[in-house]
Structures are given as C-alpha cells and as structure tokens.
Amino acid sequence: MAESICRALRDGALEGEHAPALSIKDSIVSPFGSDVFHHFLVQLSSSILSGKSQSRGIVLVAYSRSPSFYVELLRGKGLDVHSSVNWIRILDCFSDPLGWKIRLTGPGSREDSDVAILYNDVKDSGRLLMSIVKLGKGLMQDTKGCFSVAFDSLSEMVRHASAQPVAHMISSLRSNGEISSAFWMLHTDVVEEKVASIFDYLSSMVALVEPLIPSSQGPRLTLDNLAGTDENMRKARFLARLKRRNGRVRLLQEELRLDCSGLTFASLGDNVPITGGGLVPKVQFNLQLSEKEQVDRANVVLPFEHQGNGKPIEIYDGRQSLTDRKLEVALIREEMTQTSELTTGEILYIRDSDDEMPDSDEDPDDDLDI
Amino acid sequence: MAGSRSLLDEALPTLGKALLIEDCVETSGGFLLHHLVKRFLLCDRPVILVAFANTFSHYDRILRKLGCNLAAPRDKNRFVFVDMLDPQLQVGNSGGTDGSADGDVGFSLYERICKAVRSISTEKNSVAILVDDLSLMEVACKGSVDDVIDFLHHCHTLIAESDCSFVFLNHHDIYSSMERPSLMLYLEYMADVLLRVEPLATGSAVDVHGQLTVLNRGVHDVAGTSRSKFQNFHYRVKENGIECFYPGSRG
Predict the structure, then answer these.
(1) Do B157 and A96 touch (CB under 8 A)?
(2) Which tens digits make up the pLDDT trace of B55-114?
(3) pLDDT-derived band of residue A227, with 50, 70 and 90 as boundaries?
(4) How does DSSP classify residue B121?
(5) Residues of B in contact with A263 (CB under 8 A)
(6) Are B146 and A187 within 8 A, CB to CB?
(7) Taking CB atoms and an 8 Å cutoff, what residues of chain B touch A226?
(8) With contacts defined as CB-CB under 8 Å, which chain A residues touch B215?
(9) DSSP one-letter string for A236-294
(10) Which CATH number fits the domain that encloses residue B49?
(11) Packing angle, helices A2-11 and A33-49, rounded to 10
C-alpha cells in the first residue's frame, strides 16, 4: 500500500488532471507522521535521481525541521543534495519564520546556501506560493518539466496563515501544470476537524497514522496512555484512503514499524478489521451476518408472502380477517350441532377479534392522547 | 543517594535537546528545574534562567541547599538570570533594537536571550536555556498562545544552530478541561524529552511525594528496536536533593 502511494507520487499527473496529492495525518498518541513524511520524501527523491519519476526536482517547504536536518537525512540514505544534478531546493521557513533574526541582525546578515533559501514571511501565503513556483522553475532551468512540492508541517502553516489561504495555495499548486505531485504532513489534534477535512478533500490520497493499541484515555498523552503503549512507541497502524479518478475510494491498512534501520511497512493480520481510516466507529462485535444466517433469514416467510395464491388480497393488520372469522363461526356451529345431541347445555363464547391483544410489533398505547 | 540521583540523570539526555517538564498543582515540577540548573552548572555549561515564577533569591536559596552557589557563576558570566518579575526589567519596556511594543513580548524576550547567548556561550560548551514557567509567560503575553509558540519556535531554532539545550516548565492540569490545548500539544510535539510529574495513583504517601514519567524520544535500545524510551519512577524531594526509585523497590 505504501508502495502504491510512492508509485502515485512518482508517476505524477496526467495532462489536464490535478496533480496527485498525499495528506499524511497523525496525532500526539502516535506521532509518527514525520517519519512517514521522511519515508515518502526519500522514496520520491530516489526516484527523481534515478530518472524514474515524472518530476525532475523537488521543492521542500521546511517548517518543523532545519534544512541541515533534511540534508543529513537524504545523505544518510545515499542521496547527495549537492550533486551535479540540480534536483532539490529547501525553502527554509524554520530558521526565521517571522523575520525576528533579521530584525536583530539586519538584512543581509544571513545568506542563502545553494540548496536552502531563507523565507521569513510565513503569514503571506500568496508570496509563499510565488516563491515555491519560482524555485521549481529554477530547478527546471527554463526547460519543460515538472517538479514535486513537499510541506513538512501544514499545521504550522495553518497556525501562521489560517486555513483558507493555505487551502487556496495547495489548490493552486495542484492545478498548476508544472507540478507533478504534492504531499504534506498534518498534526490533526492541533487544528480543528474542519481544517483537517478541508485538506482531506484537497488530496487524492490520505494516510492516517493511528496507535496500534487504541488508547483508553482518548487522544491525549496521559500517563495511562504512555505506560500501556510500549508497543505503540515502535509500531502504528497505517491507514490509507486512495481516491481514484472515477470516484472509487480504496481503503487499505498496514502495520508501520520503527527500528534503527528506519521505517518499514508490513501487512496486518487478517483478523484486524479495516476501519476505514477512522470513518467507521470501532465496535467489539460483528455487524455482518454469516452465510448461514443470511440463508436462514431468506427462508423466513413474511406475513404478506402467502398472498397471490388465488385468495383475495388482504392487508395484514395483525387482526383476524373477516373471511377467517366467518369460517371459524361456521366450523363452531357445525361442531355444536354434532355435539348437541350428546349434551344437555353449553355456554358458547366466540371471542371478538377486536378485543384480542395486538401483535408484539404494535404499540398498545398508540391510541392514547397524552 | 548517589545511586538514586543517577537513576534520574541516566533518564535525561546530555546535549542539544528540548525538555518539557509538565507538572500539576498537587506535585510541583520545580525540583526538576533546580536539579537541571545544578547539573548544567556542574558540567560547566553556561545557563540562562528566564524566571516568570520566582525571584533570584528564591532559586539561590534552594540551589545553595543543593550544594550549588548561583552568585559565583553569575559573577563569572556563566549564569544569566532574566527576572521577568522585576518591573524595571519587564519585557516590552526594555527598549528593544526597534522599539518593540508592549504586545511584542515574545520578540523582546527572544532578543534578550540571543544577547545573553552571545555573551556567555563558549566554543567548548553550549548554553542551556530554562524557562519557569510558560503559563505565566502566556499571562505576560496577554493570553496569546501564538505569541508563546512563536517565542518557543525561535528558541527551538537555537538548538539546531548553536546546540543549545532548552528546558521549559508548564502546568498540564490548567488545560485539562480543554479538548485541544494547542500550547500543550505544541510543546509535546516539540519536546525531545517529556518529564511529567504527577501524584501517586493510589493517593498520597508519607515517604513518596509523587511519580515521575520520562519519555525520551529518538533513543535506540540495545537491540535497536525502539525509538522512544519510557521510564516511570517514584520520587521523594529532600532538602538537599531528590531521591528517585522504581515503584515497589522501597519497603
């Protein structure tokens, strides 16, 4: 499943279509969203360098980590950012997002490197969009080609520049013909649910990192959650929702493992139900019928199913029908004439069907006016 | 005593990390802050203490009992005390480089910290910055959580640039009624090490003052199979130190 996400990012956009976009979401009880983001960044970078991807470069917008961290991360995976191939630019929104350092030291005191470009006006998402496109075009060096865009913390972007301008920027990027693919990471618990939903709709793939063992204390980092989830510190449930162009949505899940070698994905056991990325509430019992139960249910004769066998059609209302009553009275009279010769006297009582107790599916008090 | 101290010290990292101390009204985490000030000074690391909660004499008196004199390193420019309670030194009235306004508390404080880092940092040892406490800084910022987070983010960049250590204390119980306490969540995401001080689940005891949880992120165990290390101790705060022990290890 993680591989199919990598493939979608690698293959990029079809002509006339929006670029594929991946939204990676996590929360404080399973904060592995950054690790997943780094995994896809490394995979896409590797594809770009080997010439297998549609995009020829990547613009990384760094909010939560310094450019040096990403340079070391890629170098550790054998990807040289300073290679002769011009393939990556890091827009540094981490080091001085609000321009405080420039206010202290004066303009020109900090110089851009050949890979990292300092950006210090994060509240202006329009200018940020122009900077991203400009950097991408710089990577293409005025030749035709596409590039990918990655945001390491959309929650930080939303904190600085509210959801609507950021959503507009993402939408503009996806519809830009020069963008091959885009992906980002979002902490769902620091933004409103509405904001997370906005970015779900703007993405063609949503990857959700959830604790493997659901926390008993809800989505907060409590002592009980910490103490009981040693497993959750090494593993997580990786749920993905992939939207296809024809509207079909695929729900997939895998187990995510973190060890010294990095991030690995493995299939979950068959007994683990797919919960639809948190869309369906988790229940402890089976809501589906087994095959035998379905056959048994099909064999039940419903009250109206005896009709159409030549008799006049009647609407069943839980009471005895008029023809049945006449038949019953005739039978009783016949019995009476047969037995009257043997007995001297008998009290005959014909129960009025209107006085009968209603069926169990009727409300006995429905005629009360309370 | 020495052995029990090392139990806590072993759980704490050495350099270039962000440490969050979370406490509550029943169990104050101030003792951890004092312990860390002493530990940094003993390691010959320059220390900047930003104090919203107490005066210099308060910290000096406690650190003396722990066997650490604050006046001497202050005179040697190894310890800077930023007194946020002193009205003469209130941030915003300090006349920043660009005449920062009263509402620019975060920037003014950051400016002061940057100056202090430049003045006391050495090539050998990186600076440790401690903030006591963030809930009072939020009050100083007139309740603006974003101002506090902006300040924390800029201080966090100092870890990457200068290998500084950054310790901040906050009270988690004041956000307990909030569904999404953005400041606490931001701190928990940012922190490399989370130290949480809580009362005992079984109620108060005479010889145990509370329990301490240490979540150390980004650590590999011997087998290399874990990214985070979780430890839980019981502790007893004494006049001259802290005694930490594993639950059930004391009769």
Answers:
(1) yes
(2) 999 999 999 999 999 999 999 889 999 988 877 666 555 444 444 454 488 888 999 999
(3) low
(4) -
(5) none
(6) no
(7) 196, 213, 215, 230
(8) 226
(9) EEEEEEEE-TTS-EEEEEEEEEEETTEEEEEPPPTTSPP-TTTTSPP-SS--SPPHHHH
(10) 3.40.50.300
(11) 50
